[in-house]
Amino acid sequence: MQEIKKFAAQNLDGLWDEYKRALNPQDYPVDLSQKLYDHKMNLISEIRSHIK
Q1: Taking every annotated instance into account, which residue ranges of this chain make up the domain Nicotinate phosphoribosyltransferase C-terminal (predicted)?
Q2: pLDDT tens digit string along 19-51?
């Protein structure tokens, strides 16, 4: 368990303070792979077709 805590603390130390602040934190940019993006868009399309 101590290893996990140490690993988490080290990774948090690598983030800018703007991402870690409690009040109005900056959005952390995340990229999707093309395959995941396509899957996401297909799911959205399916849901929209069921709503209409």
Answers
A1: 2-39
A2: 999 999 999 999 999 999 999 999 999 999 999
Give the chain's length: 52
32/36 Cα distance (integer angstroms): 6
3-state secondary structure of 32: coil
Give the SS3 label for residue 31. Answer: coil
CB contact set of 40 (below 8 Å; sequence gap of 6+): 32
pTM of structure: 0.54
Task: Give the separation between CA 32 and CA 40, rounded to whole angstroms.
Answer: 10
